[in-house]
Amino acid sequence: MSLFSLEGQVAVITGSSRGIGKAIAERMAEQGARVVISSRKAEPCNEVAAAINARHGAGRAIAIPANISSKQELQHLAEETVRQLGPITTLVCNAASNPYYGPLAGIEDDQFRKILENNVIANHWLINFVAPSMIERQQGSIVIVSSIGGLRGSPVIGAYNISKAADFQLARNLAVEYGPHNVRVNCIAPGLIRTDFARALWEDEAMLKQRMSTTPLRRIGEADEIAGAAVFLASPASSYMTGQSIVVDGGVTI
To answer: What is the arrangement of strands in the sheet containing 34-38, beginning at the earlier edge strand?
Structure first.
């Protein structure tokens, strides 16, 4: 069996109706996993699941909508996955929000809270729903999609960056807690990727030009270029890796 095979795995990917999450789901399905497509709205989830099933065969993907701001909906996501597909072997916490673009001095309290709750606390909730079964079976991989923003400062997405820095520590701490049970927790830290989520950054022509000029690869990334790291972290190829962050940014942070 290939080191990167995901045959027999059940993978839940949040925020997977588009962008990075969708790319991860498609590539995990390609490697043999059965995947759960989840985001707030049912229709886009159903469309992505149907496309994956058309490509890889019926039953490869199912759709279970969930709003990450709702603890109850995240619990339902975990429980319904187990009911339909069996134990979750891989969890990818990809969904996030960023309702504010500007300096920290201008952010409203409710905006700051939403960022921290959706990008950090919601990950904590969902992981707590999924991890006990992984611990019981002594096997599992949890992947948090963070950002290079968690390694840097920014004049316009500071609160988002703070939440992503917290995700790095969430992964490190859980890696310590879960390691004795052979459950691994790692992060992926993408740079600027051409997604709807990051549109405010790459549609700003001046910012895009400046970013590309300081990126060794001289371009921004595409969603599919993050998926390989997620496949690696879910696969036997990364079986001795935990508490780490894979930076995929075209070289920006070097």
So the answer is: 61-63, 34-38, 10-14, 90-93, 140-145, 183-190, 245-248
Domain boundary assignment for the chain: 10-248
Per the structure block, which two tokens stand in for 244?
């780490």
d(CA 126, CA 28): 20
Burial of 91 (0-12, 13-18, 19+ CB in 10 A): buried
CATH of the domain spanning 10-248, picked from 3.40.50.720, 3.30.390.30, 3.30.1490.20, 3.40.630.10: 3.40.50.720
**Alpha-carbon span 38 to 45, nearest angstrom:** 6
pLDDT tens, per residue, the chain with 254 residues: 799 999 999 999 999 999 999 999 999 999 999 999 999 999 999 999 999 999 999 999 999 999 999 999 999 999 999 999 999 999 999 999 999 999 999 999 999 999 999 999 999 999 999 999 999 999 999 999 999 999 999 999 999 999 999 999 999 999 999 999 999 999 999 999 887 766 666 667 777 788 888 999 999 899 999 999 999 999 999 999 999 999 999 999 99
Query: Which residues are tagged catalytic?
Result: 160
Q: Please return the burial class of 213, using the count of CB atoms within 10 Å of its CB with bins 0-12, 13-18 and 19+.
A: exposed
